[in-house]
Design a protein that fits this description.
- The protein has ten helices and 16 strands.
- It is of the alpha+beta class.
- The termini are close together.
């Protein structure tokens, strides 16, 4: 096998203009989870221009809805026909198992009316726009890596396989499909997702309770009558019950701290509320959807907390016959120990590329668990950029994108024994 050419930070930063163009154009294309086809097609076409890179459309189909780990989230593709991941491969000699890198093409819905339109900042380095940090900037990391390997014909003893996936934001369905359809176990997985340059060796899990309450509608002036009831009043009670259950969980965690998460608090976020369909009518139906974070205290931690929520709602006599709870999203926690060779090697690769290399935990859900639990390989999460994902001023710097691509190339060279 040929020796990997010597490379420096300048070799990556010299790609800045091309990367800025790739990322800005990708950011301009809307790709809300379950409606990503145009952005996937752009990604497919651009990777296809790189010499030596194998690019495939990995089509999903409706059988994914039978997978026990499939998530509906608030939105999903009711028919998966035509939906696809983009799988990119840089072929090595095959002497070692492949290394996987994962980033997602989909985004959340617009987070507010004041969302900045996609644009390039005055520094000609910062790009703003929905999804540019989470996670299109990290799709660009993989693009920069593959562009470098293509232009320098890098020879490796293993394949490098990029999983550029859909529907991450609603539970990781694209990654689930990609992992289910891998042909080789692999030696490790690098999850590239929005954070502020910290190497996350563990991520928490989460589930999304969806609570629907029902009432009996009437004119607001008649609501004192016992035959009428506002679904929204029931919903407020249900939310209070879940908040109490979550407080109970947090109190339990103080008495039973989870390794590496001692200084963290699992979130409970009431992200969606809707009630009724007319201002002057008591709502017949009201629902909420929320995020309930779970730390990896045991293999069944998520199931325990789901039962806690179910029990809290069932114990409230005021809600009897007026609510239904569903769990539409359940993402596994995952990761490795802080002293795992993957963490140590990647931390060095980051530092050598000019990144801090701080090691921590990810108090958010991501797709690590699919690689950790289904493939059974070590996986970490790493990303660059300020902590502004899912915000109206989401941004990332192209120079940081290139530093992370440089770090991955450092890591690949080390794994190749050079």
């Amino acid at each position: 096998m040929s020796k990997i050419p010597t490379f420096t930070a300048a070799d990556f930063q010299n790609m800045r203009a091309d990367l800025r163009d790739f990322l800005f154009r990708l950011t301009e294309i809307p790709s809300v989870a379950s409606d990503e086809s145009a952005a996937c097609e752009y990604t497919y076409q651009e990777f296809g221009k790189l010499s030596g890179v194998i690019v495939e459309k990995q089509f999903l189909d409706n059988s994914i809805m039978d997978d026990p780990y499939w998530c509906t989230g608030p939105y999903f593709a009711n028919d998966y026909t035509g939906h696809f991941n983009v799988i990119v491969t840089w072929k090595g000699s095959g002497e070692q198992p492949p290394i996987y890198a994962n980033a997602h093409i989909d985004t959340i819905m617009a987070c507010g009316p004041n969302l900045m339109p996609p644009h390039i900042g005055e520094d000609n380095d910062t790009i703003y726009g929905l999804g540019v940090h989470d996670d299109k900037g990290h799709v660009a990391v993989i693009y920069a890596l593959f562009k470098y390997m293509s232009e320098h014909n890098v020879q490796l003893p293993f394949d490098v396989i990029g999983h550029l996936v859909v529907e991450e934001e609603i539970g990781g369905n694209g990654s689930l499909w990609a992992v289910r359809h891998t042909t080789e176990k692999g030696q490790c997985a690098l999850m590239l997702d929005g954070n502020d340059g910290v190497l996350m060796h563990q991520c928490r899990g989460s589930f999304w309770p969806r609570i629907t309450c029902t009432g009996v509608s009437c004119h607001p002036g008649d609501r004192k009558s016992s035959q009428f009831a506002s679904a929204y009043d029931f919903l407020k009670k249900a939310i209070a019950d879940v908040e109490a259950a979550h407080a109970e969980y947090c109190a339990w965690l103080k008495e039973h701290p989870v390794k590496y998460f001692e200084d963290e608090v699992p979130p409970l976020n009431i992200g969606m509320i809707h009630a009724g369909n007319w201002p002057s009518t008591l709502p017949t139906e009201a629902f909420t959807q929320m995020v309930y974070g779970v730390f990896p205290s045991s293999s069944d931690a998520s199931a325990i907390e789901r039962r806690r929520v179910e029990d809290a709602l069932a114990a409230d006599p005021d809600l009897a016959g007026h609510y239904k709870v569903e769990f539409v999203f359940d993402v596994m926690s995952g990761g490795v120990e802080a002293d795992d060779p993957l963490v140590i090697d990647f931390q060095k690769a980051m530092i050598d590329a000019g990144l801090p290399g701080t090691v921590g935990v990810f108090n958010a859900a991501c797709d690590i668990g699919f690689y950790s639990h289904i493939l059974g390989i070590p996986a970490i999460n790493c990303g660059v950029g300020a902590k502004n994902a899912h915000s109206i001023h989401e941004s990332i710097q192209v120079s940081d994108v290139l530093k992370l691509a440089h770090a991955i190339m450092n890591f690949l060279k080390d794994r190749a024994g050079q």
